[in-house]
Specification:
CATH superfamily: Hypothetical protein af1432
Largest sheet: none
CATH topology: Hypothetical protein af1432
CATH architecture: Orthogonal Bundle
Number of helices: 11
CATH class: Mainly Alpha
Shape: globular
Helix content: 55-70%
Length: 196
């Protein structure tokens, strides 16, 4: 497994300055959330550093890699190739760096679109990506930060709904995985709420 120091060095040269700072923010935020929620903080930090491994690849390269390795799950990804950076990143981490930590790879894969089957680490990386200190303020950010400390599933629901609202407001396509993930977290949260 790659060390944190090796990952930091690798990502420093692979990403733009702003993406590098973002990755550091995600790593530190993920580490803190992991401590709060009983997960491995070192694994969360590493996943945070590596989560945008393929983010700075050109759209044409993302699409070519995804097509070549059968990584495309929906036509939306062909129309909006940037959505592929998470899945391509997970694939590339396994292939290029030999990372075989399935939980870490899944956390990288799901950090953009979400999934119905997210581990606690995957939730932490998804949320850390949304709330890291360098994020520009957006409606609901402070509430989401509070929820992340209290309840990861409720935070996921709010985070996914924020993502969907953002896409709707800008007339962007919605990915079915994000919609399914939102519905799964909604049902999970409702099942824990006592009915009157």
């Amino acid at each position: 497994m790659i060390s944190q120091a090796e990952a930091l060095q690798l990502i420093r040269v692979k990403l733009s300055d702003s993406r590098w700072r973002h990755s550091l923010g995600v790593a530190m935020t993920a580490q803190g959330l992991a401590r709060q929620h009983g997960e491995n903080p070192d694994q969360a930090y590493l996943a945070g550093i590596l989560h945008d491994y393929a983010r700075d690849l050109p759209e044409s390269e993302l699409l070519a890699l995804a097509r070549c390795h059968n990584l495309i799950e929906d036509e939306v990804e062909v129309l909006v190739p940037d959505l592929l950076h998470a899945r391509v990143g997970s694939w590339a981490l396994r292939r290029e760096l030999g990372i075989d930590d399935e939980d870490l790879l899944a956390a990288v894969e799901y950090h953009t679109l979400g999934s119905e089957k997210m581990s606690k680490l995957a939730k932490i990386i998804f949320l850390a990506d949304m709330i890291e200190p360098g994020r520009r303020p957006y409606p609901g950010l402070e509430n989401l930060r509070r929820l992340c400390s209290a309840d990861l599933d409720k935070a996921m629901l709010v985070g996914l709904e924020s993502t969907i609202s953002h896409c709707l407001e800008r007339g962007r396509l919605l990915h079915p995985l994000t919609v399914r993930a939102r519905n799964a977290f909604l049902l999970a949260c409702q099942s824990r709420t006592p009915r009157m």
